[in-house]
Amino acid sequence: MSTPVSAQAVKDLREKTGAGLLDCQKALAEAGGNVEQAITILRKKGAATADKKSGRSTKEGLVSSYIHIGGKVGVLLEVNCETDFVARNDDFKTFCNDLCLQIAAASPLYVTRDEVPEAAIAAEREIAVAQVQGKPPAAIQKIVEGKLEKYYSTVCLVDQPFVKQPDKSIKEILTEKIAKIGENITIRRFTRYQLGA
Amino acid sequence: MSTPVSAQAVKDLREKTGAGLLDCQKALAEAGGNVEQAITILRKKGAATADKKSGRSTKEGLVSSYIHIGGKVGVLLEVNCETDFVARNDDFKTFCNDLCLQIAAASPLYVTRDEVPEAAIAAEREIAVAQVQGKPPAAIQKIVEGKLEKYYSTVCLVDQPFVKQPDKSIKEILTEKIAKIGENITIRRFTRYQLGA
After folding, report:
1. Mean pLDDT along residues B123-136
2. pTM for the predicted model, two decimal places
3. What integer pLDDT is reported at residue B167 of this predicted model?
4. ipTM of the predicted structure?
5. CA B184 to chain centre
6. Does residue A193 sit at the B interface (CB-CB below 8 Å)?
7. What CA–CA distances, in Å, run from A42 to A2, A12, A15, A34, A174?
8. Which of A181, A178, A176 is nearest to A11 (CA)?
9. What is the C-alpha separation between A48 and A14, in angstroms, rounded?
10. Chain A residue closest to B57 (CA)?
11. Residue B74: its chain A contacts at CB < 8 A?
């Protein structure tokens, strides 16, 4: 190999993509050890299996719940996978429990940004535009998009930083789980009750 | 007293109304031992406290949940009461757990009939009318009302027979709890997830 590749980088890459050991080693070598570039290489080759799996249909899964101490906040969640075998897997159950905790703690309103109503997005955009008057149009555009991203990462579960590991988004954790478990996984729906709210 | 009153009848009457021991004894004696009539007497006197309590505001309570074995069905529920003291009471918790089981088992769609959409009621009425052609109008009216009651007792949580004790409706169990616990209790909302449904 042209570049020495660290075992840790290979491990990271496998977690992120679900690709095979050899594919990861080769891609990292080709990318000079750069993980992001290696991901692109794997994607082009179609070896990033998490991406491939995300198209597969999910009809099994688990309904799980979490009640915060004191019974003032509760969460109900449905996560789908491809087989009942995986639904009974501890990794899958842990992921569902982590999502319940996330929803209880970070109060998302939607699973993905596709669910955010057009009117809510328009309102956010309007607020953002009003906040950045007097800058060049190109800068305004960029700042507004940044503010919208910030909004999504507040209200959309998959865009939120994972409360247990804030350097990763829920979407990244999900991709890692798909790679590790080897089945497509989808977060179907959730409900969060806060007493009296 | 004019009529001998059984201890069991007094107990039943107290559970149903929450009225005091002496009031119940007097009302039963006055009603010749007839519990239904005694309830009416107590109501007229304003001694049926469950009725009085049902007007009081409920801001405390519990969010509780139930996941059926296998994780294919789950329920999230909010029940309100007047004080946090009652929310932490075992009787109240048991009632919440029973309601969760009820919702999991009997799949209601609404808490009360007030929540049933007008269109759904109109559709039910239409079906019922179509089923009873060729009878006298007065009979049709009565049969249709009966079928609507049946519909409510299927889709409305409070009108459903309690799965653990089918001779009582959830509404009756609720009234008993209000009488026993001594605070107004309201079933605020619930969500039921069935995997893939």
Report:
1. 86
2. 0.78
3. 96
4. 0.76
5. 13
6. yes
7. 18, 13, 13, 12, 18
8. A176
9. 9
10. A196
11. 63-65, 76-78
- Say yes or no to pLDDT of B53 above 80: no
* Contact assignment for A194 to B59 by CB distance below 8 Å: no
Segment among A36-45, B28-37, B169-178 with least mean pLDDT: A36-45
What is chain A's length? Answer: 197
Q: What is the pLDDT of residue A41?
A: 83
Check residue A190 and give its pLDDT.
98
Alpha-carbon gap, residue B78 to A82, rounded angstroms: 32
B80 vs A contacts (CB less than 8 Å): 195-196
For residue B67, give the H/E element and its range: strand B60-67
- Whether residues A60 and B195 touch (CB distance < 8 A) is answered with yes
- Closest Cα to residue A107, out of A13, A6, A193, A17? A193
Q: Cα separation of B175 and A58, whole Å?
A: 43
**A94 in reach of chain B (CB within 8 A):** no
Q: Does A69 touch chain B (CB under 8 A)?
A: no
B32, two tokens: 């010749």
